[in-house]
Amino acid sequence: MTAAPGRHPLDVEPAVVGHPAQEDLQVLFGQSIAVFASLTGPSHVVETANPAFFATIGEHRARVGVPLAELMPELADQGFIALLDEVYRTGEPHTGRDVRVVLDTGPHAREAFFDFTYEARRDGEGTVVGIRVIGVETTQVKHAQQLMAEHRALLEQIARQAPLTEVLDGMARCIEDLAPGEVLVSVLLADPDGRHLHHGAAPSLPDFYNQAIDGIATGEGVGSCGTAAHRREPVVVTDIATDPFWDDFRDLADRAGLAACWSTPILARDGSLLGTFAMYHRTPRAPRESDLALARVFAGTAALAIERHHDEQARRDAEARAEAARAELTKAMRAERELRAEAERRAEAAAELADRMRAAETAQAAVPHPEQCRLGGPDGCTAPAELKIADAWGDAAWGCHSHAEEALLTVRSAFIANEELGGLAAYINRRPARTRRAERPLTG
């Protein structure tokens, strides 16, 4: 319903003074879960109401004989007093379904939903003298519907493999929206060894607080979450200011405005630790059974999301390792092919060189053996040509022992190439008369 013509489940039809039916109605609704009240006159004075009415608006406001606007001033800004005025003026009844109303103010404020009916009460002459209101609170039903819708949405996120941070953040915000009072949700994720907890999601906690507890150890007495992770069971701290578990974190909690913390461990199917799910409050508070049930439901949902994330991460890691192995194998095969091709090229080059050497040898063998040394330079040398030397460029010449030795020492890359005695062997086995000179060290 809109606030302007707001329909308030607590707007109760005023009883007609002295009308015996009003007492009968009070008896009929006295022990009912339905709220009932009778308002009288244009100022809607609360004449009578059942216990459910006062339980709904707060026992601290349980009194009659005062205008409803004075008893429940928060209704005026929500349009419900104006709606009562309209029903009183026209005499037309009004029915509302799942109408939202914020009851009370300050620390007692809470959101509620109602189905209700407003009916005008008339005297014997048909004049409207008050309004009767009968309503049934549907808050729990409404919250249950919202809870199931949000829970289904989270499961759909998990099924489509949404990022874990997105799922956990959405879950935390969902619980904060569904809780009847202010609550701040935190999810911490455990290391694989279960010894430390790291930030997972905490959309409403201050950044400095999240950073300070990121990486805390698990253990007995380490706040609510560290202890819950260590014990593998829920830990409820109703007053952080006095609980010894918070000795090391009390100043931090005070800076963040936190007064109570209930932590539930998030466990895998095999019982291993996945993390913790915590609900913080601004004032000291003990949980109700509905709070604990809510924590259990979403701790289970968080476990499903985290395990799914771990499985997906393991699959991606395995695929990455397999891809790396395939890449390494491809690289090795490519290198093997390149090595084989290089070996083939070298073999071809060696064969070609051998052919050229054989051809050169044949060509050299066909060249007549000169009688005199050709290594004497411009002045010439008349000594017999006894040794053949060659260099790496393919040049060769015959010379005497003296000039051949000088060429070997000077050119360095020259070598003896005597086909009859196998090159160097000819130099070693030359005539005894030249042995001493020939045995000098050679370089080249």
CATH topology of the largest domain: Beta-Lactamase
User: What is the ordering of alpha helices and beta strands?
Assistant: HEEHHHHEEEHHEEHEHEHEEHEEHEHH
Strand order of the largest sheet: 8-7-6-11-10-9
User: Total domains, how many?
Assistant: 3
Mean pLDDT: 80
The counted number of beta strands is 14
Provide the CATH superfamily of the largest domain: GAF domain
From the coordinates shown, what is the CATH architecture of the largest domain?
Answer: 2-Layer Sandwich
Percentage of residues in strands: 15-25%
State the distance separating the first and last CA atoms: 108 Å
| Radius of gyration, taken over Cα atoms and rounded to an integer in Å | 50 Å
The global form is: rod-shaped
Helix content: 40-55%
Structural class: alpha+beta
> Which stretches are low in confidence, meaning pLDDT under 50 for 5 or more residues running?
1-21, 25-32, 420-428, 432-444
The helix count comes to 14
Give a verbal description of the structure.
The protein has 14 helices and 14 strands. The longest helix is centred in the last third of the chain and has 78 residues, at 289-366. It is an alpha+beta fold and 444 residues long. α6 (139-159) runs antiparallel to α7 (164-178) and α6 packs parallel to α11. It has three domains: 20-137, Beta-Lactamase (2-Layer Sandwich), CATH 3.30.450; 143-313, 2-Layer Sandwich (Beta-Lactamase), CATH 3.30.450; 377-438, no CATH class. The termini are far apart. It is 43% helix and 20% strand. Mean pLDDT is 80; it is low at 1-21, 25-32, 420-428 and 432-444. It has a six-stranded antiparallel beta sheet. A five-stranded antiparallel beta sheet has the order 2-1-5-4-3, with helices on both faces. Strands 13-12-14 form a three-stranded antiparallel beta sheet.
